[in-house]
Description:
By secondary structure, the protein is of the alpha/beta class. It is built from seven helices and eleven strands.
Amino acid sequence: MSSQYFRVNALSGEQQRSPVFEQLLARADARASTADWRAEAFSWIAPAGTAMPPIASAPLFAECGAVDAAWVCLATPVQYIAENTTVRMAGNGILALLPTHAAALAADFNRVWEDAGITLMAGRSGQLYCLFDRHLDVLTRDPQEVLGRPIEEYLPTGEGAAPLRRLISETEMWLFQHGVNDARSKSGESAVNGFWFWGGGAPLAALPELQGWAGGSDVFFNAFGPREAAGTGSGVVAVAEAPGSVAWQGIESRWLRPAIARLRGGDLARLEISVNDWRFILNSRTLRRFWRRRKPWWEFLA
C-alpha cells in the first residue's frame, strides 16, 4: 500500500483561510517533526539504506551532470532589506531567475572571482550553483527558514563558514546596480541583492535510484522528477505556495484532492502533511472525524 508525503514550505506573507487544508489538519493526528523534513521525505521513496545526497548535489547533477569540484552548494538569489541594526530577508525574498539572467550572472561572477577557487554555474532552470575547489566543513540553513527574519542567526556556521560568510558580503556589493537588476527592474521584478549559499556537499557521479515519485517545486526533489504517475505508488510533493493563496487552488486540485480520494478509496494508506516543525498524519479512519472543527490553519502550528 502506498503513502504520500506532502510538504508546505511558503508560510510568509498575508495569511488566508483554506477550508480543505484546514479540514485535513483538524482531522489528522499531529506529531512533532524531525529536524530535516527532506531526509524524512526521502526515506519514503528511497530503497532502505539509501543515503540521501546533499541538497545541492542532486539538482546540479540533474542539470549539469558530473562536475570537477570538491564541494558544491546552491546560490539562491534573494532580496535583503537593510534596517537600522540588522539585515532581514524579505517575506517573499526567495527570487527566481530567467535562465539568461542566471547565465549572465554566472559569467560575470567567474570573471570577478577568477582564480579564487570558486565558480558559479547556471543550470537550465535558472538555478545557480557555487563550486569550490576545496571541501568546506560548514552548516547552512534553508532560505525558507529565513523568510521575513533577520539573517544573522541563520548565517553559515562551523570551521569552514568564513569563506561563505565573506562571499555573502562580497556578492552583495557586486550585485549592487548590476546590469541584471536593471533588466529585472524594467520588467517589474525585485532586485537580487544577495545570494543565500546552502545545501552544500560533495558533487555526485550519479543520482540514487528511487522507488517512488516526486512532484511539486522543491529544488532537491525536482532533481528526481516524476518516476511514475502521481496517482500511483508512494510519492513526495513539496510546494512553495502558501495555503489560501490564489496559486494554492491549483495545488489543491492537482495534489490534495486526488490524495484525499485515494485515501477514501483505499489506494493510499497514509497521507502525511509536513508544515514547519509539525507532521499531520491522515488515513481513511482519521478522515471520518467529522466532529473536529476547522480553525485557521496557522493556529494548528502554534
